[in-house]
Amino acid sequence: MDSFETIEYKKGERLFEIDNEVNGVYLIKEGRIKLLHLFRKKTQAIWIAEQSELIGITSYFSKDHRFQFSAEALDNSKVVFVPEKEFKNLLESKPNFYQEIINKLCLRIAFVEQLIFSFSISNTKKRLVEILLFYVKRHGSEKYLKLPYSILDIAEMAGSTPEYILKLLKDFHTKKIIRLNGKDNLVIDDTGKFINSFG
Length: 199
Known about the structure:
Blueprint: E1 5-9, E2 14-16, E3 24-30, E4 33-39, E5 42-49, E6 54-55, H1 57-60, E7 70-73, E8 77-83, H2 84-93, H3 95-121, H4 124-138, E9 145-146, H5 151-158, H6 162-174, E10 179-180, E11 186-188, H7 191-198
Antiparallel strand pairs: 1-8, 2-7, 3-6, 3-8, 4-5, 4-7, 9-11, 10-11
Helix pairs in contact: 3-4, 4-5, 4-7, 5-6
């Protein structure tokens, strides 16, 4: 990936918009990228991609070959742009890389499907728990986790207000399920205990 162009994005800057034509995929070198989708006429955060993640994969494989979401830098970020032709060559020449992409893609789709489904049946507390559970299981080999999400990030994914999410998290903190160190410092000291509480 070192031979491809690295692009810097300021916090809040868009990499691409929904319905733009796909001309390649993006590998996050530094920072985090928020993926946004329109849900019930409201922009909804559906995924926060971290360092070493590829974004644009679902759209690359889609029939209409257009981005199915927008992407916005959550931090000042550095992203490697891999043009479509070169990405296709990588997939064809490296079967293990292709399988790794498919596995990660399935994981992301499962989360997004669950998130969208939960909007129709779950209350905010249940959506919050699902988001936190997914993140914990995503980093399942680690006992201690400091979540890289702000209260605002979580509120956007849960479709709620930061004030209400903070209220729920304070309740979890009181019950010693999670630990809040300041407003935006969310820590899970024992992921096994967390999963047993909610999983």
